[in-house]
Here is the input.
Amino acid sequence: MPRPSTFSIVARDPERDAVGVAVQSKFVGVGAVVPFASADAGAIATQSFANVAYGPDGLDLLRQGASADDVVEALTDDDPEAAQRQVGVVGRDGSVAAFTGEECFDHASDVQGDQYTVQGNILENRETLEAMAEAFEESGKTANRGLPERLIAALHAGNEAGGDKRGEQSAALYVVKPGGGYDGKNDRWVDVRVDDHETPIEELERVFKIYDVTLLEREEPEETRELSGETAESVAATLADLGFYDGTPSGAFGESERAALESFRGMNNFENHDLAVLEDALARGWDDADGTGEERLVDAIWHGLSRLDRK
Here is the structure.
């Protein structure tokens, strides 16, 4: 069987009652193998010569009240190939544990902290995991950096510190919380995968931003800004390039420009945010945004919305 050479982080956000996993691997579709999570139990990453039964079996044990340590012990004690396995567990209660089998390929180890664990195998170095832990902790000190952003920050830091010895291929972000899913009907708050890409973590972040703007709700702002000046002209010009606006871009953003923005909002399923909030987000986020065309519009909206807490 292929052995996912992988680094991952499993973590909990007690303020949002959310738990999740972020992972990168030189392995196609790692999101189908490594991450498991349930809002009523916790989150688990199973990797190396992955035993995917660790996911549902471990969640069942957490649901029954077992601690993360108890779960790791139960899973590995019953597994004759445990020496080749690696697993990280965070319970909904905040308990944390991990296991790295003695036959996992170097470098393989794990690091635990408050409400999180990082683990990896076939890595360039131990610093990969230490950088992930540091990035997760430091990103928690920044305002409006939620669990999804902190998990992605950990992946970036691990990759930059050495990462997977065999390279990059796929990445995934899976975060759950009670009622967090589409229309509140399940707990699947964030579920984003990149199955095969030259730079999967960067692509994961790009797709997550679209997912965030489209599917995740934010608190309403106390006040909103209108577009004006150079930013208004740039936004209108971009809308014109995309075929939503047929006027002459200027420093004014009036009725016809807002009609174009409304068309863009509807085309991209951004109905979670009303038009005034979307315009405010563009006004605040345009200078921080990357890319061109639609990519820059979406990135600007994401940056502008990021000052608002998620619901």
Summary: DSSP finds nine helices and ten strands in the chain. Residues 200-215 form the longest helix (16 residues).
